[in-house]
Amino acid sequence: MTTAIPTSANKDLGTGRFRKNRGNSARSIGGIVAAIVIWELLSLSGAVNKNALPSPPSTFAALIKNFGGLSKSLFGTLEAWVIGMLIATIAGVVIGTLVGRSPVADAASETVVRMMRPLPSLALIPIAILVAGLGLKMTVGLVSFAAFWPIFINTRAGVRQVDNRFLESGSALGLKGLELLFRVILPAAAPLVAGGIQIAISIALIVTISVELVGGTGGLGQFVLLAQQANALSEMFAGIIVGGFIGWLLNVLFMNIVDRVLPWRTQGEIN
Amino acid sequence: MTSTQNVATAEQKSRFYSFSLGWLGLLALILLWQLAAILINKTIFPSFTTSIVAALHLITGPIFETDILPSIERTLEGFLISAVIGIAVGMLVGHYKSARSWTTSVFDFLRSLPTPLLVPVAVVIFGLNGHMVVATIVSGAIWPILINTANGTSTIEPTMIDTAKTYGLKGRSLFLRVVLPAASPQIFAGLRIALSVSLVIMVVAEMLGGGSGIGYFIANAQQSFNINGSYGGVIILAALGWIFDTSFLMLERRILSWQRGTVGGSANA
Questions:
Q1: B47-259 belongs to which CATH class?
Q2: Cβ–Cβ < 8 Å for A61, A234
Q3: Closest B-chain CA to A271
Q4: B23-73: per-residue pLDDT in tens?
């Protein structure tokens, strides 16, 4: 049996003790300051490679100077990301539910899922370029393909693992068909589905940016690549900072939504 | 007696049934690909058999030594470096509360950073070669290991640590003999994720400037319209991903056999 993908780092950060210590915000801000100081020292001393590491002030200056270009690139990246995620989420949840509820389809998809799960989807970039040409359509296609799998796998597992007691109480109360699905099965599977979406969020961002880097289709990836080719290292690092920030922000936003919409999430965690 | 035997055979039967159904599903998908390719009949969409033949050609040809082996080597090298650093730093960060609160926000930021963005930096530092690929892999694969290790370490029963301390264990032996084994189920879950991350990052780093390797080969094949070649390369990568994952699970099962039935671990269930 394929189990759901463990929600890796993200889940653990959200529920383990790791996060509870976050109340200690003074120290964590201190940590950021310390990291910037180390960065400055590394850049000043030339320990890494003088030409490879710009100093923090020049990076932040480049960040402000290129604000317009960066926001435009960021918008391009997010556009492909949002459309791809939407398609992947809808397809993953719908197909995952259908397959998870049918023992035959569930067994028939087992081997396919095992094969697809470790497939490095970035290897498909050249083929996607061949088939669809460069452009938003191809990026969205690849992003939704890559993001589909974790959502599908987790939804399938979540729907399959619904506690029989829930199902029996549901039918004893007269629920059946779609009503049973929406009021019992999906809420019970929701924590795992959310875990799948959370993995998909970072995968989708990685795929979007990789396509931009390899294909030069605009966005944050191309911004960083062009900066590197023009030897404008401060601009390059500014782009990377924006990338890290947006990755962090998307994760935090999603976690907050999940905490609010699924208050029962912590009880339903399955390892 | 007979009834339990019956139950056992019935279970075996249903297991065999779902197992064969699984392979039938895969077979159906392959047939679908084959049919679609024949019906569409375009060079950009070769059939399954053509792609498999292309993949076999690559494995038996000179590409095996110039591209496939280097890719495997880089992936494993990057993975092992990530494992050593990630487990060591993760245990320290997980064990010492103050280290945890100082590093949380910085690690949060770094692990959210989409790793492919770091390829241009690695190119500037290392140039277009295998070292660049390994460095990029480490910068991405280290995070699932580090975070899972830290988390596994910080959730160890305090009594276990206290007992070990009463017996006089401290420093390195405390970490190696108590903390590491106790956190190992979580560490292995992180390692498994990191292994597939390593493979993904290897591909994109090589596409952007590995100078050699499967990723480089696939990107080149596409640009020179060696279409069968790029499909063959993808099949090889898919097979590699599957082999890595399966062997990792086997290894995990063997190493963690002492704690089967207790908490965690990606091979449980």
A1: mainly alpha
A2: yes
A3: B264
A4: 888 899 889 999 998 888 788 889 999 999 999 999 998 989 899 999 999
Query: Do B26 and A112 count as a contact with CB atoms less than 8 A apart?
Result: yes
Q: Average pLDDT in the B82-107 region?
A: 91
Domain range summary for chain A, segments of one domain joined by +: 8-268
CATH domain A8-268 topology: MetI-like fold (1.10.3720)
- Select the residue from A19, A43, A206, A225 to test the B interface by mutation, using most B Cβ atoms within 10 A: A206
Q: Under an 8 A CB cutoff, do A21 and B104 touch? A: yes
Instruction: Supply the pTM of this predicted model.
Output: 0.86
Termini Cα distance of chain A: 14
Task: Say how far apart CA A198 and CA A258 lie, in whole Å.
Answer: 10
Interface confidence, given as ipTM, is: 0.85
Q: Looking at chain B, list the stretches that DSSP marks H as alpha helix, in order from N- to C-terminal side.
A: 2-40, 48-60, 63, 69-95, 97-112, 119-126, 130-154, 158-166, 171-174, 180-209, 214-223, 227-255
Confidence tier at A44 by pLDDT (50, 70, 90): confident
Chain B partners within 8 Å of A18 (Cβ): 94, 100, 104, 147, 150-151, 154
